[in-house]
Amino acid sequence: MDPKRIFDYAREAEAILILQGNENSVDKTFFYLTGVDGGLFEGSALFVTPEEVKILTSSLEEESARRTGLEVLVYNRKSEYEKYIKELLNGYSTVGLNYSSLTLDRYKDLLRVVPDKEFLDVSVSISEARKIKTKEELDRIREAARIGSEAIGTTVGKIREGMTESEVASLVAYEMMNLGASEPSFSTIVAFGDNSSMPHYSPGNRKLKRNDTVLIDFGARYKRYCSDITRTFVFGRADQEQKEMYETVYEAQRKGMEAVRANRNGKDADLAAREVIDHSKYKGRFIHSLGHGLGMDVHDHPALSPNYDFNLKANMVVTVEPGVYVPKKGGVRIEDDVIVTEEGYDLITTATRDLVEIS
Ligand code: GLY
Ligand code: MN
Ligand code: MN
Fold first, then answer.
1. Is residue 249 within 8 Å of 332, Cβ to Cβ?
2. Could you give the count of Cα atoms lying within 13 Å of 219 in the half-sphere of its Cβ?
C-alpha cells in the first residue's frame, strides 16, 4: 500500500506511528500498510512517512515481517523497542497516531518515551484512504466474494431435514475454508422459519422442518479481506407469502443496485430500494440500511443509508442488502457485494439470486 494515500488526508503530520495492540486492540492499519496476510504482530509498530514504511517488531514476527520487503527493525527487550521509537521519531515534531485503535496504556507509554512530540489524530485520514480500494485490495475482496458465492451452492446441496441452525452455520464455514477462506468474516447467521424475522439472529438448536424459510448471512475472509452475503431459501415449496416477500426484496435490491454509481449519493440508493418495499404490503418492514462499505472490516464504513449523506466513489466496495422482516412470520434478506464504478457497479457475488426451493 502506498503510504501517500494516508498523508493525502493528513498533511499536517510529518510522520505517522501505528502501534499494534493485542487481539482486543488490533489496528488493521498495520496490515493495510504492510500487506502481511498472517500473524497478529502484537507489540509491533510501523513508522510511516509519505515515502516509506518501516516495521518495528519482535523476533516472533521477524520472518513474516521480512517477507513484505519493507525495512524491518527487530527488538528483543522493551528497552530496545523504546530506543528504536526514539531514533525513528528523531527530527520529527508532529506525529500522527490512529486514535481510534490506540489504547490508553500504549499512548501513555509513548508519552513517557517521547515526551517532546506533538501528537495528532489521523484516524479520519486512515479511514478515508481505506474507503477507496487499490487493485490488490479489490483482488482479495473478489476472491472472498468468489469463495462465499461457491460455498453457498455446495452448502445448499448438503442441507437436510432435522439439521439445526448451528449445524448449517458450521457447514458454511467448512465449505468456505475448503474453498480457500482463512475463516468466516463474521459469525454466520442461520435462521429457520420465523427466526428469520430477526436481522441479527444467532443460530441455535432449532431443527429444520419442511416449508421453513432458511436465511443464511455469511462471508469469507481471504487474506484479511471480507465478503458479506445473504441468501434466503425455502426448504420445500414456497407458499404465496414466501414468494411475495422474496419478489419484493429482490425487486428492491435490483432498484437499489441500479442506483449505485460513482458520484451518486448512497442515500438515493437506499431510497430507491426502500420505495419498492414501502409501496408494497411490507411497508415499514425494511428496518435497516441498504448497505455498508466492505474491506478488511465487514462494516468498513457507512455507505447506503437514509441517515448518511455520502457520495460514492469508484473502487469503493459496498453491500446491497434490502430485507423485509415480519415478526412471528419470518423475513427475507438478499445481500450482494458490488464494486462502485464510473458507469455503475460491478457485481462480485455470483450465487444465484432467484428463489431457490431446497428439495
Ligand atoms: N452480516 C451483517 C450484515 O450483513 O451487515
Ligand atoms: Mn451480511
Ligand atoms: Mn452486510
1. yes
2. 25
Does ligand 1 lie within 6 Å of residue 228's CB atom? yes
Q: In angstroms, rounded to a whole number, what is the distance separating the alpha carbons of residues 83 and 81?
A: 5
For ligand 1, atom 3, which residue shows the shortest CA distance? 228
SS3 74: strand
pLDDT digits 0-9 by tens, 263-295: 999 999 999 999 999 999 999 999 999 999 999
Runs of H (alpha helix) within the chain: 4-8, 29-34, 62-66, 78-89, 104-113, 123-131, 135-156, 165-178, 240-258, 266-278
Sole residue written with cell 496476510: 37
Query: What CATH architecture applies to the domain 4-130?
Result: 3-Layer(aba) Sandwich (3.40)
Q: Which of the ligands is closest to the CA of residue 319?
A: 3
**If you take atom 1 of ligand 1, which residue's CA is the nearest one?**
217
Question: Is the Cβ–Cβ distance between 271 and 287 less than 8 Å?
Answer: no
**For ligand 1, is residue 217 a contact (CB within 6 Å)?**
yes
Write down the mean pLDDT value for the chain.
96
**256: three-class secondary structure by DSSP:** helix
Look at phi and psi of residue 317 and say left if phi exceeds 0, alpha if psi is from -120 to 50, else beta.
beta
Q: Name the burial class of residue 20, with classes exposed (0-12), middle (13-18) and buried (19+) by CB atoms within 10 angstroms of its CB.
A: buried
Q: What is the pTM of this model?
A: 0.94
Q: Is 335 in the pocket of ligand 1 (CB under 6 A)?
A: yes
CATH class of the domain at 135-358: alpha beta
Domain residue spans in the chain? 4-130, 135-358
